[in-house]
Write a structure and sequence with these properties.
The protein is an alpha/beta fold. 51% of the residues lie in helices and 14% in strands. It has 22 helices and 15 strands. The chain has helices at 16-22, 38-51, 54-67, 75-83, 106-124, 143-146, 174-183, 189-202, 208-220, 233-249, 251-263, 307-316, 328-335, 345-351, 355-360, 379-387, 399-410, 417-436, 440-471, 473-486, 499-506, 508-517; strands at residues 2-6, 89-96, 129-136, 148-151, 154-157, 226-229, 278-281, 286-292, 295-298, 304-305, 321-323, 338-343, 367-370, 374-377, 525-529. Strands 6-3-2-12-13 form a five-stranded parallel β-sheet. A hairpin with a 4-residue loop joins strand 7 and strand 8. Helix 7 packs antiparallel against helix 8 (189-202), helix 17 (399-410) packs antiparallel against helix 20 and helix 19 crosses helix 20. The radius of gyration is 28 Å and the shape is globular.
Length: 530
């Protein structure tokens, strides 16, 4: 195993807002609290310790114990749950949708980064306890985002009727998906593990939340991971003051709209708030709550409430009120003694819209940490890269630029068109000085001739490169095939492939290698050569 770290900037796959955040640019500083470094964590611990009540801890522990009933709980996870009763225990959290069989590879990277960060913080702050949390997005209703995973270039798909919170979905119909998937796996020891994990997860549990908990627990419980389901009556009760405030005052809309006004001066906005950022949740629906003419309506239903009625409903039926993307982060921070949230670039971008909202409701804004991203390169692929003289950084170049660079390097014809264009520009500087002393029409003629000749050289450069690519057809094909293999669909493989492809080949050593490689506080992109 060989691990190489390169700056996120060198990959070309990360947004301006994320790169500015990593560099602590002045333009992004007003939108976060403490930065993800040891000094930042020291401040965050002090802030959270003052604000998180013992009663909330006890309710959290009871809720987790209830959620884990019927599951095998590792000793480490059990100890971590118990430790949440202590005022010196804090959580580090990542969240993820309930993707079929974990979905894309970065599910693993999120959770292992969270586990590793807890271990690093335990070394830096030995008087505190740090426990890793996986927040299951059980209340999401974007089924089309989670009903498949990719295996060996093919989509393994679960077709069923959509509707409501995905965590409550019945696992009926997944036996047919299992039959299709298992046909592709073979009969190796690693294949049998994957079959058992899938079948025990989905065919022995009644709903998607329980199935996902089982799979994540099997993969990560040895590291003490705690899996939490926010679709829980007792946890929602802790959130009822915030829900009532939202219904009466539309606090999130006002605060986030103010932030967006400032943020959009420099950055693209990830999500926009609604007047009320809550859904009403039924057994088979999750619909927006809309206030019209003093009446609270549940969109696409006949359900309506007066103000008094809906506030009473919050008290009597808190589980029916589901936060949307704007309020879910706050819900998490209300019920957890949390210091840090680890997420991808898109997640971080919408979290950066929320600091003013957190301040408005007096809840500490957590540290935001861009999760580890990983590119796996096999030994065979590494040898091919070396033979083609492609560095690990060059691997992430736009394919046109990569091919152009390598074709030029490999060419016997050494013509530096950039130098020739610069030389031409210098010649025209002299002509322009002469032209200024004559008629304006001559100035225009000189400028036009300059553009024409430079354009001519650029066209010659393109034609030469095209001819060289044709002449070096074998090299072009080898580079194209290799880059497409490593970066499927010209994107990071972590968004395309499922962990099962690597587990089939490497077994549990794949997870162990990832855990050894991921360094969340280094804030760099990881290339793992296996």
């Amino acid at each position: 195993m060989k691990v190489t770290q390169i700056p996120f900037q060198k990959t070309g796959f990360f947004s301006k807002i994320m790169l500015d955040y990593l560099e602590k640019k002045e333009s992004i500083q007003p939108f976060y609290n403490n930065f993800p470094d040891i000094s930042g964590f020291h401040s965050q611990i002090e802030e959270k310790q003052k604000s998180f009540r013992l009663q909330s801890r006890l309710l959290l522990v009871d809720a987790l114990k209830n959620q884990y009933q019927g599951f095998n709980v590792s000793k480490k996870t059990e100890e971590n749950i118990e430790s949440l009763k202590l005022q010196n225990t804090f959580t580090v959290t990542t969240g993820h949708q309930l993707n079929l069989f974990t979905g894309p590879l970065y599910f693993l990277y999120k959770i292992l980064s969270t586990i590793n960060l807890c271990e690093e913080l335990s070394e830096k702050f030995p008087e505190q306890n740090f426990v890793p949390i996986y927040w299951m997005a059980t209340e999401d209703h974007d089924f089309e985002e989670i009903n498949y995973f990719n295996f060996d270039g093919k989509k393994v798909l679960w077709n069923r009727k959509d509707g409501g919170a995905v965590g409550r979905f019945s696992t009926e119909g997944l036996a047919a998906v299992f039959d299709v998937f298992s046909e592709h796996l073979g009969h190796s020891k690693n294949a049998e593990f994957l079959k058992e994990l899938f079948s025990d997860g989905y065919l022995k549990h009644n709903n998607l939340a329980d199935a996902t908990r089982y799979i994540a627990n099997e993969l990560f419980s040895d590291y003490g991971l705690i899996i939490i389901d926010g679709d829980d009556t007792s946890l929602k009760q802790l959130f009822t003051p915030i829900v009532k405030d939202e219904l009466e005052n539309e606090t999130s809309f006002k605060a986030v709209s103010k932030t967006i006004t400032d943020l959009e001066k420099n950055y693209k906005i990830q999500v926009n708030p609604r007047e009320i950022n809550l859904f009403y949740l039924g057994d088979d629906f999750r619909e927006r709550i809309i206030l019209e003419g003093g009446v609270y309506k549940v969109n696409n239903t006949d359900i309506t409430f007066s103000k008094a009625e809906i506030l009473k409903e919050v008290d009597e039926n808190p589980k029916s009120f589901s936060p949307n993307v704007i309020m879910r982060p706050l819900y998490q921070e209300v019920i957890l003694p949390n210091l840090c949230y680890l997420g991808g670039g898109g997640e971080m971008a919408y979290w950066l819209e929320l600091k003013d909202y957190f301040e408005a409701v007096a809840i500490p804004f957590p540290i935001l940490l861009l999760r580890n991203s990983v590119q796996v390169v096999s030994e065979k692929q590494a040898k091919k890269l070396e033979k083609l003289n492609i560095s690990l950084e060059e691997l992430f170049l736009n394919q046109h630029d990569l091919l152009s660079e390598k074709v030029k390097e490999n060419s016997d014809i050494k013509v530096n068109f950039d130098e020739k264009i610069q030389f031409l520009e210098k010649q025209f500087i002299e002509l322009k000085e002469v032209a200024k002393q004559t008629d304006v029409s001559f100035v225009n003629a000189v400028n036009a001739q300059e553009r024409k000749q430079i354009k001519g050289l650029e066209n010659l450069q393109k034609r030469l490169l095209k001819a060289e690519k044709k002449r070096q057809k074998d090299l072009v094909e080898r580079i194209t095939l290799l880059q497409n293999e490593i970066l499927p669909n010209h994107s990071l493989e972590e968004r395309q492939r499922n962990f099962s492809e690597y587990y089939l080949e490497y077994g549990s050593s794949f997870t162990k290698a990832l855990k050894m490689a991921l360094k969340p506080l280094q804030l760099e992109f990881t290339i793992l050569e296996l």
